[in-house]
Amino acid sequence: MRYRNETTEKTNGIVYTPSDLAQYVANQMLGNYHKEKKTYKILDPAIGYGELTIALIEALYERFDNPKIEVFGYETDYNIIEQTEQRISDFCHDVKVFIENKSFLDSTFNESNQKYDFIIANPPYIRTQILGAEKAQEIALSVGLDGRVDIYYAFLILAERLLKKDGIAGFVTSNKFMTVKSGQTVRKHFTFKTDILQITDFGDTKLFTASVLPCVIIFRPKQITKSETVYTSVYESKKSKAECSVDNIFEALDDSKTIELYDGRTFNVIKGTLQADPNGSSWRISTAIRNSWLEKVESNTVKYFSQLGKVRVGIKTTADNVFIKESWKQEEYIPELLRPLITPKNAGQISADNDSRWQVLYTHTVVDGKKVAVNIEQFPNSLMYLSTHREQLESRDYLKKANRNWYEIWVPQNPNAWKKRKIVFRDITEIPQFWLDESGAIVSGNCYWIDLFDKTLEDEVFLALAVANSKFIEQYYDICFNNKLYSGKRRFMSQYVEQFPLPDCTSKKAQSVIRATKEVVYNSPSRQQKKVMLEEISALVESLFVS
Questions:
Q1: What's the pLDDT score for residue 285?
Q2: Short-list 442, 294, 292, 299, CA closest to 364
Q3: Which of helix, strand or coil describes residue 161?
Q4: Strands (E), 462-533
Q5: Average pLDDT of each block of 10 consecutive residues along the chain (547 residues)?
Q6: pTM, 2 dp
Q7: Percent of the chain whose predicted confidence (pLDDT) is above 90
Q8: Residue 88, CB half-sphere, CA atoms under 13 Å: how many?
Q9: 369: alpha, beta or left? (left if phi > 0; alpha if psi -120 to 50)
Q10: What are phi and psi of 397, to 5 degrees?
């Protein structure tokens, strides 16, 4: 195999498929396909070195007697094509191979008359930010997508259009599209246009060398009759005790159990069915136990976090090195516009664990009820300091296009909102970290915050803090969203936090939780005391929902 340029591969979203995963995809596809034909047409729209295609060819030869096979592929790297054609020929010289040196997406914007029996792919993962807004919009319009686009969304939708009526597709993709807001269009499309036969979420199993959390999805065009989608989830668990040991993750996917791999890692395998709402809400795995638990939770829920306030991301300066510093003492001109800034370093459960404050040069205010940039001429030190970075700040072309001043923060949020009480939380963390801030500080862009409505009751705020930091919410998150990264870290994004449940705050038990939460906030317990108090609060929260 030729030398692989890892920088180029990362930029272009290239993640090559391991052979054991390729064999798994091929076998699952044929496990759902039982029609014998004279000729099978295979499409691999991102063929690379042909690992997936070769695995499917091998599976076809094992299943059918001397099948005729035609392979169609697309590959943007000309140097790979010859090697891939040779690999397929070495495996079986009877297979006809047609690989085009172009992007699959460029070839399929106009509806193709060619249909395929099998489409198998590990498409590139490229987000809008890397792809470029103009190209992303072109792709999005061509396949009916909206919002932020990851390029593999288009591959998924186009595959459904290019399958024969009795065809079947197997894709290896990032698992993000199943839960994130930008994947809603894809989820809707699949619900109405396809039969999803099987999903296997391999989570943090590290099947790839790249930091991709992969899933395998097997689907076909919509049929009259359809059975439930088999959904298998595999995630590492450092707290569970293994029931058996296996050498390969693929040996352990038949039923729910906890397994230990040869390298000592422990994984929970959960097998159930797909819970997919036609409106495109997050997909989740459904089991009898989980459904019963969620029914109890729902029966004890009176409102959701979205009804307490607007969940917002922190400020985005797009020039943090200029606007944000831990200390400004070394600067020749100390800006007058400095404001305290909350960062993940402050993070804690219910209350902040660290009082240290970074500072941000904040360039916005409110005039006549409207958010405006300050008149920088009125703040000479701030102007002198910012002028030393003017070249960098003026290079932000998007500010010019928006008719904004060169010295502005790109996303300042509402300057009046900072002075109000707010709940701040970390985006990426193993355990939830939501804490109350009453200092009037600004929130940095790597945290989120709940801009509480004026009508939200004080008791609701403290009960929400208790719920958000509990073991209960970890379980709720994993059942409903399960957007985990490596090492068990969760993504506490606004779309998930908005759906967190809140029980009745007037009950006797809820009032106990509220009092205990206020003690943590206002009585400054020691680290050990706080730990004990959090455990007691967490147990009470669980009893509010599922007792």
A1: 94
A2: 442
A3: helix
A4: 490-491, 501-502
A5: 35 62 95 90 94 95 92 91 92 90 74 84 68 60 67 88 94 91 88 94 80 88 88 88 90 92 90 86 92 96 98 96 94 94 95 89 95 96 96 94 95 95 95 96 96 97 98 95 80 94 97 97 94 97 94
A6: 0.85
A7: 69
A8: 29
A9: left
A10: -60, -30
Q: How do residues 517-546 score in pLDDT, each as one tens digit?
A: 999 999 989 999 999 999 999 999 999 999
- Report the distance separating Cα 253 and Cα 532, nearest Å: 39
* 3 state DSSP class of 25: helix
Are 177 and 183 within 8 A, CB to CB?
Answer: yes
Asked whether the CA dihedral 140, 145, 151, 157 is positive or negative, the reply is negative
> In 402-489, which ranges are continuous DSSP H helix?
458-468, 471-480
How is residue 418 written in tokens? 């900072």
For the chain, give the mean pLDDT. Answer: 89
Domains along the chain?
17-227 (3.40.50.150), 294-308+453-547 (no CATH), 312-451 (no CATH)
pLDDT tens across 242-291, in order? 899 998 899 899 999 999 988 888 999 999 999 987 777 889 999 999 99
In terms of Cβ atoms closer than 10 Å to its own Cβ (0-12, 13-18, 19+), residue 302 is: middle
- With vertex at residue 56, the alpha carbon angle to CA 55 and CA 59, rounded to the nearest 5 degrees, is 90
Provide Rg for the chain, Cα atoms. Answer: 27
Q: Are the CB atoms for 272 and 285 separated by under 8 Å?
A: yes
Distance CA 164, CA 334 (A): 68
Instruction: State phi, psi for 161 to the nearest 5 degrees.
Output: -70, -25
Residue 34, Cβ density class (10 Å: 0-12 exposed, 13-18 middle, ≥19 buried): exposed
- CA contacts within 13 A on the Cβ side of 46: 24
